[in-house]
Amino acid sequence: MQLTGLQHNIAAFFSMDNIRNFCIIAHIDHGKSTLADRMLEATHTVTDREMENQVLDSMDLEKEKGITIKSHAVQMKYRSDGKEYILNLLDTPGHVDFSYEVSRSIASSEGALLVVDATQGVQAQTISNLYLALDHDLEIIPVVNKIDMDAAEPEVVRDQIVNLIGCKPENVLFASAKTGKGVPEILEEIVHKVPAPKGDPSAPLQALIFDSVFNSFRGIIAYYKVECGSIHKGERVKFVNTGMEYTADEVGVMGMKLQPQDEIGTGNVGYIISGIKSAVEVKVGDTITSVENPCTKAIAGFEEVKPMLFAGVYPVETDEYDNLKVSLEKLQLNDASLVFEPESSMALGFGFRCGFLGLLHLEIVQERLFREFNMDCITTVPNVSFKVYSTSGEVVDVHNPSGLPEETAIDHIEEPYIRAQVISKSDFFGPIMKLCIEKRGTLVSQHFLTTDRVELNFDMPLSEIVFDFYDKLKSISKGYASFDYHIIDFRDADLVKLDILLNGEPVDALSSLTHRAHAYDFGRKMCEKLKDLIPRQQFDIAIQAAIGAKIIARETVRQVRKDVTAKCYGGDITRKRKLLEKQKKGKRRMRQVGQVQVPQSAFMAVLKI
């Protein structure tokens, strides 16, 4: 086929040698999103009018909290040495709860910018994300950011990076994402250091889906990286794992807006719209291939995400159950690490048992359900997953306290343990040790990174860190300590089921599995909190915490009483007694029929204990 001059230009322009796919990895608040903003400005991908802070963070929640929750892909065009290059940037979250998003971006890149704050140095999350990138053989470009700050120590931080990755000191770039200093050098380094994608343009189409979003007008938009072959507008494509076939109604690349193209070639990152309506049809990590000329095997996708934390999510209005299901499915499209299955509760009706990566992830999902789908939900006390070994030799995974077998049928219970890595200033060494030991942690190793920075490694139960560990760690270290963890194994645990009873009736939504040594304190706190939150009614309400048949804590919400003797003045005392007796009988009868309503604020507050 003879190419015209313009077509030839476009074909050459999409040459694989001119494509660079890279991601930015760093600890929270080390300036990833701001650096991405400056790159978009330097390459004129955004106009001055469109520019705003954290321009890639499209969610209101991201802008409010100042954190990146979702990975974001954007394509930039950049000229160097007379050639035009395509730079596909994947901005990633830094928070430990969203490390799954980082793993997906890394799997689609050939290089990574390792950004380290010049005032804080190498932190725990920097190291864990770096290891992820090294596992995928990515080319690492180290950048020391925030050199314009008064407290910056760029040379000290450069030495830390050199020790960490073994590069030469002159290979570490200095930059300020706020002022834009050093950004042109970073772009040049990406062009010259990051390898071009590898792949066979003449082979059958193989594209890896790394993300998907739901659009209410156009259905599901899937984002992918083409590993081999190319994808054309209008061709029939097949999703290998689900076996579904579609027509590629629109393909294109992601600038600041979606930019339709006729073809996306090997090594490039793009999107496909094919009118998919159902969330279950698109799986992150799936392979797209052509129906006419299919590939022989799927690309090895990502490892299945393993939720660390489980909680029940129930609609406030019981007839909203179907809407909640649809909302969770749409949310799952955009957040592949969310898993859920139906469950029911005596107190709350029908809902879902959801798996999360951590407490921040739970909070974000709850907030997004409310904002994006207008769903008012009640969330039960979160707990981790346990392995229960029964006396008959069976092993059961328990995500929910109500799924625990009878105590007589349990041989032993195992809980997940993590290896926690804490990096902090050595001034806070003592308080951090005390906190970790209180949380049933055992010290594995410690070593000083510099004269005033120490790295501590602990083995501790996951259940001890899901509530307030991170907040306490930040407050005792004045915000300096950084924290990262990964699951290592399951170990024996002395756990008990703690029930909360209202007037003798257990409220299953408030049950929790807790360590025997902490059960008394936790039960007492729960009772005290509920006493403040449950409104007074016409009868006394007994709030009790129990382990099996043994009550370990109790509080009472006193009844509201009308002064029935107000109209008796003087006269015989028996008249007053008769009225009080009559009131007492009424109260007793009311207590038998009256239901104790637990307000939603009570469930929310118990979460914060």
**Strand pairing plus helix content: what structural class?**
alpha+beta
For this structure, the CATH topology of the largest domain is Rossmann fold
CATH H-level homologous superfamily name of the largest domain: P-loop containing nucleotide triphosphate hydrolases
Spans of 5+ residues with little confidence (pLDDT < 50)? 1-13
Amino-to-carboxy terminus distance: 70 Å
Distinct helical segment count? 15
Q: How much of the polypeptide forms β-strand, as a percent range?
A: 25-35%
Radius of gyration: 29 Å
Q: How many structural units, i.e. domains?
A: 5
- Principal-axes shape call: globular
Average pLDDT number: 77
- Profile the largest sheet: 8 strands, antiparallel
Task: Detail the topology: elements first, then pairings.
Blueprint: H1 5-13, E1 19-26, H2 32-42, H3 60-65, E2 72-80, E3 83-91, H4 99-107, E4 111-117, H5 124-135, E5 139-145, H6 154-165, E6 173-174, H7 183-193, E7 206-215, E8 219-228, E9 231-232, E10 236-239, E11 244-247, E12 250-254, E13 258-261, E14 263-264, E15 269-273, E16 287-290, E17 309-315, H8 321-334, E18 339-345, E19 349-356, H9 359-373, E20 377-379, E21 386-390, E22 395-398, E23 410-425, H10 429-438, E24 442-450, E25 453-461, H11 462-465, H12 469-476, E26 482-493, E27 495-502, E28 505-506, E29 512-515, H13 516-533, E30 541-547, E31 550-557, H14 573-593, H15 600-607
Parallel strand pairs: 1-3, 1-4, 4-5, 5-6
Antiparallel strand pairs: 2-3, 7-8, 7-16, 8-15, 9-14, 10-11, 10-16, 12-13, 12-15, 17-19, 17-20, 18-19, 21-22, 21-23, 23-25, 23-26, 24-25, 27-28, 27-29, 27-30, 30-31
